[in-house]
């Protein structure tokens, strides 16, 4: 399978997600009789997790086709609102205005957490002076108040900062705006494609950028990670442990929002959601993210059962008793 690539607002569809053509043994999956088409869109951060999940899911669920796009968290919610998708991936919680629009249309939805992420701040590999930043210093940089590194710290060189950011279609942009900017404007070179941000920081010695932890993990030989002080002045660093337990200053959950009516009606969709939670974050780890604590997946499995009913679980129990 070709390497996962993200193309900003370009939809990445069923050609990447092989739900209809897995080559596993028929009858070996939990959804032996499951059929259907499942469509998703949204966060380019969550996208690689969905692909990893579907690579596994496809092996035993040949009659279920799962497709996914990466038009960004905001773009994904627009498609979710229009009814053209069954689930929407998000790298931030749903906004109040998005909730209202869904409510006005009579669309009931459910929120599931799929993994944990840490927004990682990086600078150019040749930058030998920026090792840590406070949230206030980040705000100075991304508000445009600090024009040079010397403006951030008098001990640093008087060289113009080149700041890079995801654009407004990204949940990562919204998260950063909320956590760092106090909802103020981000003044930086923005791009829909996270890979372009990575490359921009890599090429510019005065560059600084931010994105999901997996992008840093994939490019840590080319970039330098910056530690961040939390609100109490404690220095934090993004690691799997600190991201999972939330002690890293810029930790965040990653979400899947499901259309409840479509979930109840589509057996294939039910099986895919059960598979996601049964996986307990293994696919997320494979994609370079961090699994949630196991109890979080267990709690959400119970939530899913309450939504779709326990009929399928009773069938699974009958099979186990017959063995």
TrEMBL record:
Compartments in which it is found: Cell membrane
InterPro entries for the chain: PBP_domain, Phos-bd, Phosphate_ABC_transporter
Signal peptide per UniProt: 1-26
Statement: the UniProt record of this protein carries the keyword Phosphoprotein: no
Superkingdom in the source lineage: Bacteria
Gene3D superfamilies, per the entry: Periplasmic binding protein-like II (3.40.190.10)
Keyword Cell membrane appears in the UniProt entry: yes
Pfam family, one: PBP_like_2
PBP domain mapped to chain residues: 31-279
Keywords associated with the record: Cell membrane, Lipoprotein, Membrane, Palmitate, Phosphate transport, Signal, Transport
Region described as Disordered: spans on this chain: 26-45, 297-323
Membrane topology qualifier: Lipid-anchor
SUPFAM superfamilies for the chain: Periplasmic binding protein-like II
Subunit structure: The complex is composed of two ATP-binding proteins (PstB), two transmembrane proteins (PstC and PstA) and a solute-binding protein (PstS).
Function (record text): Involved in the system for phosphate transport across the cytoplasmic membrane. Part of the ABC transporter complex PstSACB involved in phosphate import.
Family according to the record: Belongs to the PstS family.
Family annotation (NCBIfam families): ptsS_2
Protein name: Phosphate-binding protein
Provenance organism: Staphylococcus succinus
